[in-house]
């Protein structure tokens, strides 16, 4: 069997068919099964109307997810399964979702409303694969192709333009030439699409194995919703560290980063400020002073517009601003950076630096072993639970007060001083050593006070 239907899904299909309805699994789960990948979720399509589905499946918990569009979610042995009535979509006057849907008893009609041939296949538990639009061939050819006329399909729903790029990136497929020409031609359709829908498809695109190629070949489509990238296209760097223009460097750095949304977004945005900071010195070498800050501001604006979460915006904008921060100088510097950035962000910053370096000149890449040393040093600090913040300093304010420090600002000043000494390796993070350090420090102060008063007395 080419599609291995899990038992939770099979029991839903069985009940529907036992009740004389047609039912099958459809879309992404069929596509992924044929590719030999484990599907993330299973969608069921059926000739049963939503009320009929709910009636025959009344033994299950059911959530009325989108009754108007024919969808209910069935909880089968802990697995949520979307069960949707076969439907044909009405007109798309807003270019986003159908104004109305019409239910149909025919699977083929339901398949014909789907976006791409590879997403328009169904599988019945008894009758096998239903592939009316050549999806299986396109999977073999690694091709994304619209079901039907691409111009019509993209004008019905502009999001499909970005979905085509998303699937091409995630599956590492090429886009059929007719579909590709059409999506370029119709790219302004993306202007009317809800930013949240763009955000979700775009994030998947960025994390796919084909991201670099798609960002290169379809940059004008991406520019439609991130116009800020346009200034980087073909912008020469004239700098010995770089062998690519700003956009080419950017997309290579995206691909060099691990497939994680935060890191890939950071790489996409990290140099966007460069074209606005360009200067040349006397020998004609290009510089981009201040670009991390400008890029950070741009990242903030872009990610807000695309409705990313506040946490994501905060982290990405920070990583962009700090992407050139020096990490060399041994454990002391790393403890300082840890104090400022915290463990998670510094670990990501090391990844950012690596991806950035991998997209630079070969000479720069020779520095990668140094970065690996930095990473190891960083992991050692974490593993050994070395102290880099007041939280893990072996004394606190109360300890200092017990040791005779007067309450108030002096406590804070001494704690900062102790932390600094520990970070610099001048004092061990041990209670006794720290209290001795305080004593010596206060002694110095007293001496200083005597000197001063002696001085003024003269
Ligand atoms: P994933 O593995 O990312 O979930 P998927 O193929 O399941 O991939 P979904 O976005 O979950 O993608 O959509 C499920 C199915 O619904 C698709 O396979 C496709 O058949 C259909 N579909 C989704 N969005 C659209 C759309 N905008 N236009 C036409 N058909 C769509
Ligand atoms: Mg899905």
From TrEMBL:
One GO MF term attached to the UniProt entry: CCA tRNA nucleotidyltransferase activity
UniProt organism field: Caproicibacter fermentans
Cofactor(s) listed in the protein's UniProt record: Mg(2+)
tRNA nucleotidyltransferase/poly(A) polymerase RNA and SrmB- binding domain boundaries: 172-219
Domain CCA-adding enzyme C-terminal span(s) in chain numbering: 296-438
Cytoplasm keyword on record: no
Listed InterPro entries: Bact_CCA-adding_enz_type3_sf, CCA-adding_enz_C, NT_sf, PolA_pol_head_dom, PolyA_RNA-bd
Nucleotide-binding found in the keyword field: yes
Record Pfam families: PolyA_pol, PolyA_pol_RNAbd, tRNA_NucTran2_2
This protein's UniProt keywords: Magnesium, Metal-binding, Nucleotide-binding, Nucleotidyltransferase, RNA-binding, Transferase, tRNA processing
EC number: 2.7.7.72
Annotated Poly A polymerase head domain residues: 25-145
Protein name: CCA-adding enzyme
PANTHER family assigned: CCA TRNA NUCLEOTIDYLTRANSFERASE 1, MITOCHONDRIAL
GO biological process, one term: tRNA processing
Gene: cca
Family indicated by similarity: Belongs to the tRNA nucleotidyltransferase/poly(A) polymerase family.
Enzyme class at the top of the EC tree: transferase
């Amino acid at each position: 069997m080419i599609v291995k239907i899990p038992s939770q899904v099979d029991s839903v299909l069985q009940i529907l068919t036992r009740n004389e309805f047609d039912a099958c699994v459809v879309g992404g789960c069929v596509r992924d099964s044929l590719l030999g990948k484990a599907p993330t979720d299973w969608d069921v399509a059926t000739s049963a109307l939503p009320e009929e589905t709910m009636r025959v499946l009344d033994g299950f918990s059911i959530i009325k997810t989108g009754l108007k569009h024919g969808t209910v979610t069935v909880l089968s042995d802990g697995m949520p399964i979307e069960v949707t009535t076969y439907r044909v979509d009405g007109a798309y006057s807003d270019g986003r979702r159908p104004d109305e849907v019409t239910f149909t008893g025919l699977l083929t009609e339901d398949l014909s409303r789907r976006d791409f041939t590879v997403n328009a296949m169904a599988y019945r538990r008894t009758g096998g694969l239903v592939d009316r639009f050549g999806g299986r061939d396109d999977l073999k050819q690694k091709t994304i192709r619209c079901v039907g006329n691409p111009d019509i399909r993209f004008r019905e729903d502009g999001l499909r333009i970005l979905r085509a790029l998303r699937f091409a990136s995630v599956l590492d497929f090429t886009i059929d030439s007719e579909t590709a020409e059409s999506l370029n031609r119709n790219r302004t359709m993306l202007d009317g699409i809800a930013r949240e829908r763009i955000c979700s498809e775009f994030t998947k695109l960025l994390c796919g194995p084909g991201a670099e190629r798609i960002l290169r070949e379809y940059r004008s489509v991406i520019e439609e919703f991130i116009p800020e990238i346009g200034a980087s296209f073909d912008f020469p760097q004239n700098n010995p560290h770089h062998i690519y223009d700003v956009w080419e460097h950017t997309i290579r750095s995206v691909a060099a980063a691990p497939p994680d949304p935060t890191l890939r977004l950071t790489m996409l945005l990290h140099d966007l400020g460069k074209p606005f900071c360009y200067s040349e010195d006397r020998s004609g070498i290009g510089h981009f002073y201040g670009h991390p800050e400008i890029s950070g501001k741009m990242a903030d604006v872009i990610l807000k517009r695309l409705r990313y979460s506040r946490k994501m915006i905060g982290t990405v904008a920070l990583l962009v601003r700090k992407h050139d921060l020096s990490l060399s100088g041994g454990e002391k510097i790393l403890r300082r950076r840890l104090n400022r950035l915290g463990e998670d962000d510094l670990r990501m910053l090391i990844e950012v630096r690596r991806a950035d370096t991998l997209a630079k000149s070969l000479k720069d890449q020779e520095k990668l072993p140094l970065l690996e040393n930095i990473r190891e040093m960083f992991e050692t600090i974490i593993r050994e639970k070395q102290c880099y913040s007041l939280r893990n300093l072996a004394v606190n304010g109360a300890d200092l007060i017990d040791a005779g420090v007067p309450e108030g600002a002096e406590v804070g000043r001494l704690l900062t001083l102790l932390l600094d000494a520990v970070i610099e390796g001048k004092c061990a993070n041990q209670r006794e050593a720290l209290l001795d350090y305080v004593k010596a420090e206060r002694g110095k102060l007293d001496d200083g006070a005597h000197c001063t008063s002696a001085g003024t007395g003269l």
